[in-house]
């Protein structure tokens, strides 16, 4: 795995540029289209998919009929009252539809910007996988899996595929929002190309791996539009609960009619409760708030992922992310910065630090590896040493080779080497003619051992000059743990998520880095097949495991993991095995994904609690009002002192309708997530949404009642 | 201190003290471990298996378990029906009672097999000893044992990993009966005999009545009419039946007057003991649960949630019954009588018990789906009478019947965990088992059946003139009578509000149907959930897991219990007892 070139904040302008036009998401166009959509969704064939709102729609139709009847002078209640109830019931349905339409609209806005990148292009189809072969020009939509195409500089890649020949730089900004070109080449882990991206230089021969309509971009568009959104198991379970509540309330309201008929006969005054009031009571009691917002919450969850430049292949994967309790993280790029860096010069006895720094810098001038550069940088920062401009025929740079395991420089009067301690020892020994390596002082050896023990990499620096060959000291190279990562892991631990570091390092080094980064566990000297075993082992114990991968050899482990995030820069095999793709190819993205998953589930739970808690106050508003004629004594229950029975019922209905648009922003944004233990999250959410859900409507209904009285609508 | 408070406090202390050892003992029994009674009862248990050809090692899927349970119960219904219809041909019928009529026989057969014991007959004037002992008492044991078997299967399912089976119904039934119910009832019966409860095959004694006008109304019959110089006092094997009536939360009395009858419940101590024993197994089962799932905290949380609702309800009922009915007090004062403010509401209560502990009895019997009564619930104050009705309408979950109370509570836990689990950002799980659409479907089905049955049957009763004829009070109280009857039947409580003509064919059949639905249709979803949970893995707990113990979760579980019931029944209760109470306060009458 490679470090990311773009660890930018996902909400930054750069990544939002092409994929997530966040600012414009709630623009007037989106809203206008959402309004049209809200009305279009009134079609009962669509509404029936949401049983709660379908029930409200049926109630709306019924009260409309009663309203017409009342206008004709045969109403069960004043037309003004029935008309208002009916209007607000229609409002309830439309507000719920609006929530879904806005969520979909935001997705559509993103999809449109994606679609602009998918211009119908012409592809150069080769007969044989050979660049020099003849090609025919076909529309990209005609390409099927297995076709071989040639893409040259300036061409748009016609479909998802695998580079089988050539190297090219590709502009993938249409998909990732990242403007810096990336290299795609045949073989290895950078062979996957995405349809809609553009080759900037050179050429590629690509085998198409997706049929038209199934490409990455197509799937992405379908997902963000919500068109292909299937209900997740958890949504289905919640739907069942909400439908259950609705059925109970349907029967509660229906049986109130005979009960009230009985009561009228028993008391000899009043009239049986009217159908309008029963419908109003029903709509107030059934969980319309969560029922109306449920699908918007789901769509918004996907949308939030897209804003983080992550594509989920299913809503289920997003939920699973909330459940993950083990994170497998690659060391390099996720926990540590990409490369080891020099952090200290530890001189041998009798050598000053500056001497050592100077020698180390000289030996690293030609060393273009990140480690080598870090030595130069450290020498400059710590001792103000500027790399001397040494050039000329009498200067020979000795590059690193696997045989010598050293690099260095030969100057006219001295030779400097740096490298693994045993290699340097051998070099000194060879130079002095001896074999015992006695010129490496014990102190240096001790330093070397100490550094290795601490998880660092020791590089020994030696010189051979007029005084002979001797060791000058040790450079301490170290994996630099990313800033803030330790705190992040501590947060995850509080939320009950274990982090596990995967590294190819030896156990000693791995342990030291693990301790420094604060991960819970590590796997050292890991091979790809170890990852698979590790995941299986954890799953056997019931854990849900998330991991990130990019190489083809990660594919089996990705397929096994519960949440598998593939880097967009990774191979096609890795992407296919994963259930999410990170367009930024950022290794720390996994942590964001887990939080988004949790937030999605929390939003669902809190709004359900809120919705049901609301019913308490609605009973206090409606029951005394509905039976005021039969049992005026029940007026004691009118704790809100609502003006009249009709204004009480209307206020409850209006509150029930208005709470939906009032909560749309929360549904789209998601409730606030803090990494904290389950019990502290529960107490916080129960307090805000449970207790708040009981209290808020008492206040809301009372205020609406005051307004209704002031406007003379009661 | 108001009447009944001290006894109630002592009662609660005794319940909690005894429930723990009993619960842990039951856990050992249900897990097939050795107990101190194994040496004695092991051979009995093995004999039962050998005689009935049961392989105790056989494991059942939930479907097989449910089929065994329901098949066994249906055979029980048919056998009991036949026995009651044919009792005039059977032995042990010294009073020569005729065959029981078809409606009453159907209602009684269903009612006893379903652990409801809704009685539409007078025991001492309808049932032969053979019917009482072989018919009714046998079903008292078996219905209690099958309720416990279901919850044992459910708990077992929670502890198993990726298992297709949930245990063996015959083994659970046999072990519950032999190791738990029989020994407990033997002890209780002997203690009751010491208090004066009869245990004899003698049919009756003749007594010479000194003052015929003062002959007690219940449980005795004036012989020969006329001046009534002689009274026939019915006797029989009462103590043995009384014991299982309480321990098995059955509630079906030997006598018509149930525990208000001096031979079923002679002394204040026997009264106290009966409340204690009917509460004991339901409150012990949470301990059994905690021990079987290997986490005592889980059991304690459920116990706490049950206790909170129970204690609060008892407090309300005792409070309301300790206050006199203002209308009666006013009427007494108008008539120049003594003010009754110190006596509480004594209408329909036994003087030897008093209003407080009678309210406690009413709370306990309705909170546990027992349905035994030592006073007339119909005569309670409106709100005092609302408490027993409400305790049934929250689904008999605090603590509920033997077995049925705990599994009903666990269904509420599933709902509570589902919503709370989402609120902590995880897909919900309970004890490491994921709650998914299938469990939700079954749990919601379970929760729907009861309120739908009660509300639909009650509302049809108020529309049918033949049914309306059965109520004895007009106004909101009449509605309360009907609501109470169907709440009692559907929740398998079996207590009667009184005042309702329950023997009418409409009620005999409709309540019979309600009982059947409330018992077996609800057991099937419970077993289905058990089967599904047994198949799942157990997700290890972490700090991200919703803790299903501790004050926060207990409070949430209490809230869910109340909200689920209150939302379904509040409107109907408003038109019944709440309206009646408010009218009473306003001085209105019907």
Structure overview:
- Chain A has 714 residues and is of the alpha+beta class.
- Chain A contains 23 helices and 21 strands.
- In chain A, helix 9 (275-285) packs parallel to helix 22.
- The longest helix of chain A has 39 residues, at 79-117.
- Chain A starts with 12 loop residues before the first helix and ends with a helix.
- Mean pLDDT of chain A is 83; it is low at 1-25.
- In chain B, helix 3 (62-85) runs antiparallel to helix 6 and helix 4 (102-113) packs parallel to helix 18.
- The longest helix of chain B has 36 residues, at 550-585.
- Chain B has one domain (5-209, 231-333, 341-585).
- Chain B is built from 19 helices and seven strands.
- Chain B is mostly helical and 590 residues long.
- Chain B starts with a helix and ends in a 5-residue tail after the last helix.
- Classes of the chains: A alpha+beta (714), B mainly alpha (590).
- At the A-B interface, helix 8, helix 11, helix 21 and helix 23 of A face helix 14, helix 15, helix 17 and helix 19 of B.
Brief summary:
The complex is a heterodimer of chains A (714) and B (590). Helices cover 51% and strands 17% of the residues of chain A.
- Gross morphology of chain B is globular
Q: What is the N-to-C order of secondary-structure elements of chain B (H for helix, E for strand)?
A: HHEHHHHEHEEEHHHHHHHEEHHHHH
As for the number of domains of chain B, it is 1
Portion of residues in beta strands of chain B equals under 5%
List low-pLDDT spans of chain B.
Answer: 217-227
Number of helices of chain A: 23
Shape of chain A: elongated
Radius of gyration of CA atoms of chain A, rounded to a whole number:
34 Å
Mean pLDDT reading of chain B: 90
Which helices and strands occur, and which strands form pairs?
The complex is a heterodimer of chains A (714) and B (590).
Chain A: H1 13-16, H2 28-40, H3 44-47, H4 51-71, H5 79-117, E1 122-126, E2 135-139, E3 148-152, E4 161-165, E5 167-171, H6 173-176, E6 182-185, E7 192-193, E8 198-208, H7 216-225, H8 233-267, H9 275-285, H10 288-307, E9 310-312, H11 315-323, E10 326-330, E11 336-347, H12 353-364, H13 370-383, E12 396-398, E13 406-410, E14 415-419, H14 421-432, H15 442-453, E15 457-465, E16 468-481, H16 485-494, E17 498-502, H17 507-517, E18 521-523, H18 528-540, E19 545-549, H19 555-560, E20 563-567, H20 572-577, E21 580-582, H21 589-626, H22 645-669, H23 678-711
Parallel strand pairs in A: 10-17, 10-19, 17-18, 19-20, 20-21
Antiparallel strand pairs in A: 1-2, 1-3, 3-8, 4-7, 4-8, 5-6, 5-8, 9-21, 11-16, 12-13, 13-14, 14-15, 15-16
Helix pairs in contact in A: 2-5, 4-5, 4-9, 5-7, 5-10, 5-22, 8-9, 9-21, 9-22, 10-21, 10-22, 11-21, 12-13, 21-22, 21-23, 22-23
Chain B: H1 5-30, H2 38-52, E1 60-61, H3 62-85, H4 102-113, H5 123-126, H6 129-159, E2 165-167, H7 169-194, E3 204-208, E4 220-222, E5 230-234, H8 238-247, H9 268-292, H10 296-321, H11 326-334, H12 355-367, H13 382-393, H14 404-423, E6 429-430, E7 433-434, H15 437-463, H16 465-468, H17 475-490, H18 505-534, H19 550-585
Helix pairs in contact in B: 1-9, 2-7, 3-4, 3-6, 3-18, 4-18, 6-7, 6-8, 6-18, 7-8, 8-9, 9-10, 9-12, 10-12, 10-13, 10-19, 12-13, 13-17, 13-19, 14-15, 14-19, 15-17, 15-18, 17-18, 17-19
């Amino acid at each position: 795995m490679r470090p990311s070139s773009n660890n930018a904040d996902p909400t930054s302008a750069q990544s939002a540029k092409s994929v997530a036009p966040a600012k414009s998401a709630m623009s007037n166009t989106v809203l206008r289209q959402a309004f049209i959509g809200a009305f279009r969704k009134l079609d009962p064939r669509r509404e029936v998919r949401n049983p709660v709102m379908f029930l409200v729609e049926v109630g709306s139709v019924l009260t409309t009929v009663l309203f017409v009847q009342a206008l004709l002078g045969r109403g069960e209640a004043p037309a003004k009252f029935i008309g208002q109830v009916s209007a607000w019931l229609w409002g309830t349905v439309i507000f719920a539809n609006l929530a879904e339409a806005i969520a979909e609209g935001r997705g559509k806005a993103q999809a449109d910007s994606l679609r602009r990148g998918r211009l119908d292009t012409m592809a150069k189809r080769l007969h044989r996988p050979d660049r020099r072969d003849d090609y025919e020009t076909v529309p990209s939509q005609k390409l099927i899996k297995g076709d071989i195409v040639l893409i040259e500089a300036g061409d748009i890649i016609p479909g998802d595929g695998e580079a089988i020949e050539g190297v090219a730089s590709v502009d993938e900004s249409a998909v990732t929002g990242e403007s810096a070109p990336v290299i795609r080449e045949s073989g290895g882990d950078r062979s996957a190309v995405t349809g809609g991206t553009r080759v900037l230089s050179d050429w590629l021969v690509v085998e198409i791996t997706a049929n038209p309509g199934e490409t990455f971009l197509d799937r992405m568009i379908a997902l963000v539009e919500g068109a292909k959104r299937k209900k997740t198991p958890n949504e289905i379970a919640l739907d069942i609960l909400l439908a259950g509540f609705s059925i109970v309330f349907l029967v509660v309201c229906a049986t109130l009619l005979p009960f009230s008929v009985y009561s009228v006969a028993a008391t000899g005054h009043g009239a049986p409760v009217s159908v309008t009031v029963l419908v109003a009571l029903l709509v107030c009691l059934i969980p319309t708030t969560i029922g109306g917002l449920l699908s918007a919450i789901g769509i918004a969850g996907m949308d939030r992922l897209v804003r983080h430049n992550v594509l989920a292949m299913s809503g289920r994967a997003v939920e699973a992310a909330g459940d993950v309790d083990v994170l497998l993280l690659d060391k390099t790029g996720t926990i540590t910065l990409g490369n080891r860096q020099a952090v200290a010069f530890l001189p041998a006895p009798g050598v000053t630090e500056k001497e050592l720094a100077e020698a180390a810098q000289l030996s690293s001038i030609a060393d273009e590896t990140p480690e080598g550069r870090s030595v130069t940088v450290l020498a400059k920062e710590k001792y103000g040493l500027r790399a001397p401009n040494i050039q000329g025929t009498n200067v020979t740079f000795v590059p690193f080779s696997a045989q010598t395991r050293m690099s260095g420089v030969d100057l006219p009067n001295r030779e400097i080497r740096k490298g693994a301690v045993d290699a340097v020892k051998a070099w000194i020994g060879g130079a002095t003619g001896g074999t015992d390596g006695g010129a490496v002082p014990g102190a240096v050896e001790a330093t070397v051992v100490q550094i290795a023990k601490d998880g660092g990499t020791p590089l020994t620096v030696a010189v051979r000059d007029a005084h002979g060959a001797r060791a000058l000291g040790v450079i301490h190279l170290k994996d630099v743990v990313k800033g803030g990562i330790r705190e992040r892991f501590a947060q995850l631990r509080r939320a009950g998520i274990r982090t596990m570091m995967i590294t190819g390092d030896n156990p000693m080094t791995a342990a030291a880095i693990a301790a420094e980064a604060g991960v819970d566990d590590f796997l050292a000297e890991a091979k790809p097949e170890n990852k698979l075993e590790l995941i299986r082992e954890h799953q056997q114990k019931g854990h849900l495991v998330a991991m990130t991968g990019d190489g083809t050899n990660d594919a089996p482990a990705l397929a096994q993991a519960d949440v598998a995030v593939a880097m967009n820069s990774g191979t096609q095999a890795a992407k296919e095995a994963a259930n999410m793709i990170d367009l930024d190819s950022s290794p720390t993205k996994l942590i964001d994904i887990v939080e988004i998953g949790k937030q999605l589930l929390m939003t669902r739970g809190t709004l359900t609690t809120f919705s049901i808690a609301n019913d308490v106050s609605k009973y206090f508003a409606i029951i005394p009002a509905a039976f005021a004629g039969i049992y005026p004594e029940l007026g004691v229950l009118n704790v809100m002192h609502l003006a009249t029975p009709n204004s009480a019922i209307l206020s409850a209905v209006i509150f029930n309708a208005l709470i939906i648009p009032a909560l749309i922003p929360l549904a789209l944004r998601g409730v606030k997530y803090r990494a904290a233990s389950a019990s502290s999250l529960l107490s916080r959410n129960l307090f805000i949404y449970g207790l708040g859900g009981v209290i808020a409507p008492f206040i809301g209904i009372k205020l609406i009642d005051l307004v209704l009285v002031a406007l003379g609508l009661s | 201190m108001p009447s009944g408070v001290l006894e109630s406090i002592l009662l609660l202390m005794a319940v909690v003290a005894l429930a723990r050892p009993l619960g842990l003992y039951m856990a050992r029994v249900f897990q097939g471990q050795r107990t101190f009674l194994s040496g004695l009862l092991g051979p009995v248990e093995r004999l039962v298996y050998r005689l009935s050809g049961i392989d105790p090692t056989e494991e059942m899927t939930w479907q097989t378990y449910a089929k065994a349970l329901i098949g066994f119960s249906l055979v029980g219904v048919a056998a009991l029906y036949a026995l009651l219809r044919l009792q005039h041909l059977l032995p042990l019928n010294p009073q020569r009672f005729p065959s029981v009529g078809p409606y009453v026989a159907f209602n009684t057969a269903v009612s006893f097999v379903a652990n409801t014991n809704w009685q539409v007959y007078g025991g001492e004037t309808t049932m032969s000893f053979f019917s009482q002992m072989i018919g009714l008492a046998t079903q008292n044991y078996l219905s209690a044992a099958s309720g416990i078997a279901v919850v044992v299967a459910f708990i077992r399912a929670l502890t198993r990993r990726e298992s297709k089976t949930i245990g063996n119904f015959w083994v659970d039934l046999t072990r519950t009966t032999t190791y738990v119910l029989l020994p407990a009832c033997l002890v209780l019966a002997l203690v009751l005999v010491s208090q004066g409860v009869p245990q004899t095959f003698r049919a009756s004694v003749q007594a010479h009545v000194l003052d015929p006008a003062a002959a007690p109304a219940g449980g005795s019959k004036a012989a020969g009419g006329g001046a009534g110089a002689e009274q026939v006092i019915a006797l029989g094997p009462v103590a043995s039946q009384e014991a299982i009536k309480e321990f098995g939360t059955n509630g079906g009395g030997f006598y018509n007057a149930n525990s208000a009858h001096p031979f079923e419940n002679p002394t204040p101590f026997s009264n106290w003991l009966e409340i204690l024993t009917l509460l004991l197994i339901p409150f012990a089962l949470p301990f059994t649960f905690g021990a079987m799932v290997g986490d005592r905290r889980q059991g304690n949380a459920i116990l706490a949630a049950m206790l909170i609702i129970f204690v609060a309800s008892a407090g309300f009922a005792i409070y309301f019954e300790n206050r006199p009915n203002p209308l009666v007090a006013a009427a007494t004062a108008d008539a120049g009588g003594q003010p009754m403010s110190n006596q509480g509401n004594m209408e329909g209560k036994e003087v030897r018990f008093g209003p407080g502990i009678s309210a406690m009895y009413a709370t306990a019997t309705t909170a546990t789906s027992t349905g035994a009564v030592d006073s007339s619930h119909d005569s309670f104050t409106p709100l005092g009478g609302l408490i027993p009705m409400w305790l049934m309408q929250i689904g008999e979950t605090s603590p509920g019947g033997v077995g049925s109370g705990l599994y009903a509570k666990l269904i509420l836990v599933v709902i509570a965990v589902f919503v709370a689990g989402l609120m902590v950002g995880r897909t919900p799980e309970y004890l490491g088992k994921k709650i998914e659409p299938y469990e939700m479907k079954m749990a919601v089905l379970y929760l729907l059946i009861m309120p739908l049955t009660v509300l639909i049957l009650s509302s049809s009763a108020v529309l049918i003139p033949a049914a309306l004829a059965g109520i004895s009070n007009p106004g909101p109280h009449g509605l309360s009578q009907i609501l109470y009857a169907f709440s009692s039947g559907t929740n398998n409580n079996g207590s009667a509000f009184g005042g309702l003509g329950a023997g009418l064919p409409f009620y005999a059949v409709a309540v019979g149907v309600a009982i059947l639905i409330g018992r077996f249709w609800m057991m099937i979803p419970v077993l289905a959930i058990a089967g599904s949970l047994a198949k799942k893995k157990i997700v290890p707990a972490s700090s991200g897991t919703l803790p299903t113990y501790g004050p926060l979760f207990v409070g949430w579980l209490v809230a869910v219990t109340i909200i689920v019931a209150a939302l379904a029944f509040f409107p109907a209760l408003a038109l019944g007892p709440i309206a009646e109470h408010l009218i009473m306060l306003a001085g209105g009458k019907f």
